[in-house]
Each structure stands twice: as C-alpha cells, then as structure tokens.
Design goal:
The protein is of the alpha+beta class and 479 residues long. The chain is built from 15 helices and 12 strands. The longest helix is centred in the first third of the chain and has 37 residues. It is elongated. Bound molecules: adenosine-5'-diphosphate. The site of adenosine-5'-diphosphate has 20 residues, from helix 11 and helix 14.
Length: 479
C-alpha cells in the first residue's frame, strides 16, 4: 500500500471530524460542557479519525498511482524497477472499487500487450516488404515509413528521424506530390510513374490511396503511398514490343519481295521462261530466308520454355562437334576455310541436351566460317578444368568492335544487317546460343580484337564428378 500523504490525512480528518467539533462547540456555547473536556474530546475525535482515515487514504492513493501509471502508458514499478503486483483490495466500498479496478487493470494490460504485439508484428511485416511503403497525414507529412522506404528516401535513417517530415522534402517528384494532393482533395486512388533524376534507368510506380476512417485528426495517417520498381516489367514490355516489331519487319521484307515476284510472274515475265526461272530462284531464296527465320523463332521459344529445367543427358562433346563440322564442311570448303579441332583435353561426357548442343556449336562454327576471312583457319580448342570443359571457337576475321560485344546475344542485334542477310543470317543465332548456354547453367564469353578475329568460348559442366583413379580408391578403403 502507498504511504499515506499527510496533507490528505489532515484534510480527510478535518472533513470527518468537523460535525463532532461543531457539536462540541455548541455544547460549550450553551454551557452544557466545560471548555477543558471539550478540547480533550475534540483532540480524541481528531486522533481517532486520523487513525481510521490513514488506511483508506493510502488505498485510494494507491489506486490513483496505478491510474496515473496507466495514463502514462506503463505499470506501477517498485524501486528496483520490477513491475509491482496488485495488493489485496481489502473490504468495504473502497475494497469493492479496488477489486473492480484490479480487474479493469488486468484486462487493460492484456489488451494493451495484444495491441503492442500486433503493432510490432505489423511493423515487422511492413519492414519485410520489398516495396517502399509510406503513410501520410492530411498535411502530407510522413507518419510511417517501412524499411524499404527509409532506405530509398532517407538513406536508411531510423523511423523517428523521418516521422513528421514533409513528403516533398524526401521525394521531390512533382507527379507524386500532385497525386497526393488529389487524394487529399477527395480522389480515392491515384497511380503515376516516375524516375529519379540520378537513376534514370529505373522506373517506379507510385500508388496513392486514402486509408479511410472519418475521424482522422491532423496527425493521423490519412493516405498510403506505395512505391514499386517497375523497371523490369517496363523493360520486358518494351522488349516484347520490339521483338514483335522486329519479327514483323524481318518477315515483311522477304514477303514483300515474294509478292513483287509473283506479280511480275503473272504479268511481264509470264511468257518469258528465262525471267521466270530467274524469279523462281529469287523466290526460293526469299522463302528459304522466311523458313530459316521461322525455324530460329521456334527454336528460341522452345529453348526459352525449357530454360528452367537443366538438361540431364550425358553428351559426348567430340561426337557433337564432329557432327557439326561434317555438316559445315561444304560451307567451309566454299570459302577455303580449314577447320582445326583440338578436343583432347575434354575428359568425359557433358551434362546436356545433345540436339541443343548441336545447335549451339552449329551456330557458333557457322558464324566463324561466315565472318572469317577467306582461306583462313577456324580453330576449335578445348581447355581442361576439373568440373567444366571450355570450348573456344577462334576465327581469323575482321573482329568485333568492343561496343558491340555486350549486345551481340540480343535478338536481331547485328553489326551489319545487310551483310548478315546477304550471308543468310537471321540475327537470332547468338540469342539461341545464349539461351542454350543458360539452360545448361554454362557460360559464354566473347572476346575479339579488331582486324584479327574473334573468340567465342563456351563453358559446360561434366555430367559426372571427376573419376578417382582406382588405386586412390583402394588406398582410401584400406585406411
Ligand atoms: P546472324 O544471323 O546475323 O549471324 P547471330 O546472332 O549469329 O546473327 O550474330 C549476330 C551478329 O554478331 C552478326 O550479325 C555479326 O554481326 C556478329 N557476329 C557473330 N559472330 C561473329 C564472328 N565470328 N565474327 C564477327 N562477327 C560476328
């Protein structure tokens, strides 16, 4: 129980003793009681009331302390800082009030803990969100910012540091601020896109929504601002649109020629067998080009579809490359190109898909034959490593300027489109190579020296771990 406050005891004693003292004074006034005994009686009354008042005053004071502690959001603590247990409520009217208060206090602490735990869990959850999230009051000041928002807008400063700051001070984006104003003016939702001045290649979408609730005071959260990095999405939409435009363009060109030739055949070349033969040959070239393009598109889409499932066949790389070089031998002969193959360092089968590996090496070796200078040698060289095999296709051609290297595997990226078309290229060969390498969890490295030639090095993984020599195994079991 709290130590009774003297002032309260005095005032309570005086208040309770007042009627008795008045009665004694009246008795003295009418001569029924002598002043001496009256004073003694008054002192006795005061002492008795003071003695009786001490306990109820102490109990009421304890209640007051507990209520004060609740108001300031904590618990009554003992001098050593531990939270103090409730005392026996006692009897009487004050006892009933104390017991009722104790029940209320217990529930209040339980509800408060549930609320604090819930808020803590919500904060952890919001902090785990990858997207920046901010709540704003009616004056566009920050009420809450999750970890992603603090990292993006306030260099990761703690929440207390940024609470109350104006949104325009941390996000100088006129479009977003305008959207927030519109929501404050009554709009339910607004979504805008923006880029940061120092990160122009990153696009964000900002979504502003009212949180709702009619009794929102000036400092309460009123609107929610959610930022989402939509760079990858926009890039993929753009590349899809570019891809469709490129495919249409690539098909359109031979198609236009075909339509032109058909018209000519129907018209001027109708009666001219020599012209007809010439046009039919040109038409065959154009339709071959269209067929190659469609074949490459189908290959690309098939490989992309399987890209997430690594192939699990054990493939003999020498056999694959042998098949490809046999296939391309006539083409190489036409350009007087020698193919020099050194695959001895390859020690075992490769984990892969045989058809895809044929396609991969066919595209690379065919490019080397196409882009090398006439009469030179294309070398196919293997390098030894414990878990991987690296096959380099080295040509002696014009080489590739360094600014093109990073983009060579993009679909339809060609250094010289006219030359590529003239050589029967679709612009998809290296994109197919890149996707096959990705599916095989391998690597493609392109290096080139202008005027000397280029090297396309493919690294692939062996199907099985390196074989331990038989005597090593015996030695291990003997141990
Ligand atoms: P293409 O069908 O045009 O050959 P690829 O995707 O196979 O398409 O190659 C893309 C471009 O990369 C080619 O157009 C060419 O400009 C360049 N390229 C590919 N291989 C070589 C090489 N060995 N030497 C020089 N340039 C090459």
């Amino acid at each position: 129980m709290a130590t009774p406050n003297t002032k309260h005891i005095v005032t309570t004693t005086l208040a309770f003793a007042a009627p008795a003292i008045v009665a004694l004074a009246v008795l003295v006034a009418i001569g029924a009681l002598a002043i001496g005994p009256a004073i003694v009686a008054a002192v006795a009354v005061l002492l008795a009331i003071a003695a009786f008042a001490a306990r109820p005053v102490g109990r009421l004071q304890e209640l007051q302390q507990r209520i004060d502690a609740m108001v300031s959001g904590g618990r009554v603590t003992s001098p050593d800082g531990a939270s103090e247990a409730l005392t026996d409520p006692g009897g009487g009217a004050i006892g009933d009030v104390t017991a009722a208060f104790q029940r209320f206090e217990r529930n209040w602490h339980r509800d408060r803990k549930a609320l604090t735990d819930g808020l803590g869990a919500a904060a952890t959850l919001f902090d785990a969100l990858p997207d920046p999230l901010v709540t704003l009051d009616r004056q566009s000041r920050l009420v809450y910012a999750n970890a992603a928002a603090r990292a993006l807008l306030a260099e990761g400063r703690p929440e207390d540091d940024i609470r109350g700051r104006d949104l325009s001070a941390v996000l100088r984006q006129p479009l977003v601020l305008e959207a927030v104003s519109e929501v404050q003016a009554g709009a339910a939702t607004r979504a805008v896109e923006f880029t940061f001045a120092d990160r122009v290649d990153q696009t964000f979408e900002a979504r502003v929504e009212t949180i709702g609730g009619t009794e929102v005071s000036d400092n309460d959260a009123f609107a929610l601002l959610l930022l989402r990095d939509v760079t990858a999405q926009r890039q993929s939409e753009q590349s899809r649109a570019d891809f469709v435009a490129n495919v249409s363009h690539e098909l359109r060109t031979p198609l236009t020629s075909l339509i032109g030739f058909i018209e000519t055949l129907r018209d001027t070349a109708k009666e001219d067998p020599a012209a007809r033969d010439r046009f039919l040959a040109l038409m065959a070239t154009q339709s071959d080009r269209m067929a190659r393009l469609v074949d490459d598109l189908l290959s690309l889409s098939r490989i992309e579809m399987n890209e997430h499932t690594p192939p699990d066949e054990a493939v003999d790389l020498r056999h694959v490359i042998g098949t490809v070089t046999d296939l391309l031998a006539p083409q190489a002969r036409q350009r007087n190109i020698t193919i020099d193959t050194q695959l001895d360092p390859v020690t075992g089968p490769i984990a892969g898909d045989a058809d895809e590996l044929v396609q991969l090496f066919q595209n690379l070796i065919e490019n080397a034959i196409k882009y090398a200078h006439e009469g030179t040698t294309v070398r196919i060289v293997a390098e030894r490593a414990s878990e991987t095999a690296t096959i380099s296709i080295i040509d002696q051609g014009d080489g590739i300027a360094s600014e093109h290297l990073a983009r060579l595997t993009e679909r339809f990226y060609r250094i010289d489109t006219a030359r590529s078309r003239e050589l029967g290229g679709t612009g998809l060969g290296l994109a197919i190579v890149k996707h096959i390498v990705n599916r095989h969890r391998g690597d493609l490295a392109i290096t080139s020296t202008e005027g000397e030639g280029s090297t396309f090095a493919v690294t692939l993984q062996y199907a099985a771990p390196p074989i331990i020599a038989a005597d090593e195994t015996k030695a291990a079991s003997a141990d």
